[in-house]
Design brief:
Layout (H helix, E strand, L loop, with lengths): L11 H10 L4 E2 H8 L3 H13 L3 E5 L7 E5 L1 H23 L6 H15 L4 H19 L1
Antiparallel strand pairs: 1-3, 2-3
Helix pairs in contact: 1-2, 2-3
Length: 140
């Protein structure tokens, strides 16, 4: 299973970029926000995915000054393939748990994902406290 915990030819950030765009084109700033990355990092990721033929930049139909990023056919195909593999792996992992514990496990993972998500105020508070604790130890 360890070998399957990859995103194929993509980094995890590249996979999340494809995942975010699977719902349709979006402006670069919105894409960076959704993936949880700085815009300069997102630009490098988009550059690479565009060079590899998975997505394209285009002028917005609504506002000509706005550049949107969209998946190309190959990008959508790769995203769907990797998403199916991820779902199969998740099913396999959950299948290894006792049946009466699976629902609790899924609920716990969901709670943790929401807690540590980049947009989570709770996560930011945890980070602030950890940083403050480290600084306190360093001063001693």
């Amino acid at each position: 299973m360890r070998g399957k915990l990859t995103c194929g030819p993509l980094t995890i950030q590249q996979f999340h970029t494809l995942e975010a765009l699977a719902g349709g084109p979006m402006p670069m700033g919105d894409l960076a926000d959704q993936v949880g990355l700085h815009q300069s990092t997102m630009t490098r990721i988009v550059d690479r995915l565009e060079r590899d033929g998975y997505l394209v930049r285009k002028r917005s139909d609504r506002e000509k000054r706005l550049v949107e990023v969209a998946l190309k056919g190959e990008g959508m195909k790769l995203y769907r393939k990797l998403d199916r593999e991820c779902l199969a792996m998740t099913s396999q992992l959950l299948g290894a748990l006792p049946e009466d514990r699976r629902e609790v496990c899924v609920e716990t993972i969901d709670m943790l994902a929401r807690t540590i998500g980049p947009d989570s105020e709770r996560f930011r508070e945890i980070l602030r406290r950890c940083c403050a604790a480290k600084q306190g130890k360093a001063k001693r």
